[in-house]
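Researcher: Let's run the pair from yesterday's discussion. Sequence first, then tokens, for each.
Model: Starting with the first of the pair.
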Amino acid sequence: MQNGVWALVLWMLVGDGQAACPAWPQARADREIERLSQQITEWKNAYWQQGSSTVSDEVYDQLAERLAYWRRCFTGEAPAHDASPPLKGEARHPVAHTGVRKLANQADVARWMRGQSGLWVQPKVDGVAVTLVYRQGRLTQAISRGNGLAGKTGRPGSCRSPPCLKSLTAYWRIAFYRVSCSCSARGTCKSRWAA
């Protein structure tokens, strides 16, 4: 199966850029769609059931978009958004992990933010899928991503990487804050107020 994965990745990187639908007979289109669909399902199962990311987010997103494109080409249907996995967490996230459903561009982000308040927007870092909860400047809870709404709780002491600061040097309770993060190896970030 590994050779098939690399063949898909290579084809995706040197493909036709999705300028036009592939000129395939329906039988080939069905085979290609089924093969890519099975691969994406395997990756999703590994991610959600085993907690293992077997492909980069960038490759996954590009191939998922390609699959949706092919389906539109050959069935005329826009695929429904994949549902999150069942709620299997002992702790609810204070704010849902929205990285579970990606927004394709700045216009989609602007549309999603319209009418929202109290948002905390920060860059996504591959491999980091945890909510850190601080109370009075102290780390009190670490919650794994789970299904984006709830996850498993870990002991705050089990988080050892620089982003898991045990306490915050300065903290404020504010309604809206945008992080412009430039982090050092010690995990300190330069931040600024939203304009």
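Model: Moving on to the second of the pair.
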Amino acid sequence: MNNVLVFLFSLLIIQSSRILAKECHKEERDALLSFKAGISDPSNLLSSWHGDDCCNWWGVLCDNSTGYVVHLDLGNQYNSYWSVELSNSISSPYAFTGEINQSLLGLKHLTYIDLSLNDFSTTTIPEFIGSFENLQYLNLSYSSFTGEIPPQLGNLSKLFYLDLSNSKFTGKIPPELGNISNLIFLNLGRSYGSDVEDHVVSFILFSLKQCNNYAT
């Protein structure tokens, strides 16, 4: 009898949370639709991106109490075999391609972005990503971004996880990354070709210098 009561009480809590959960905000829904418009989606993963409540869309997680989008989880798991087991230089038929629309700036409460295992080989990491002041997790690995890492990423003061591995970067690791004092995970593997060790050593030395400056 007690187990039945516990079960019924649990169902009541679940249903109540669904009723109380706020729907997403119109401006954030519009921002996501603008992002979708700039993306080629061969596997139709974004087919659920329609209707008023973007909190029910694939890859989108909202804060139940506010309705604001906090997670954007668009890592392409269909692409894991192609990119990880074979090579990130092999283009998968399942990967997102295209441009990352600046409309994402409308998602001001994002704490989590995962765009890994896609094919952004024709573009660079957008500088505007450095404007997400609440961002804690950023995974752009195995997506073949080109060009230089934007120094604006150093503005992500709350970031603790940064994975930019298996990209095609040029230039050097921006010293501004040393400003991310909460960073506990950094992966740049296979992103700078044969020079990656020198880049990483230089960055580690810079980071240690920054830590010493903060301590004094």
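Researcher: Give me one sentence on the second I can quote.
Model: The chain has one domain: 17-215.
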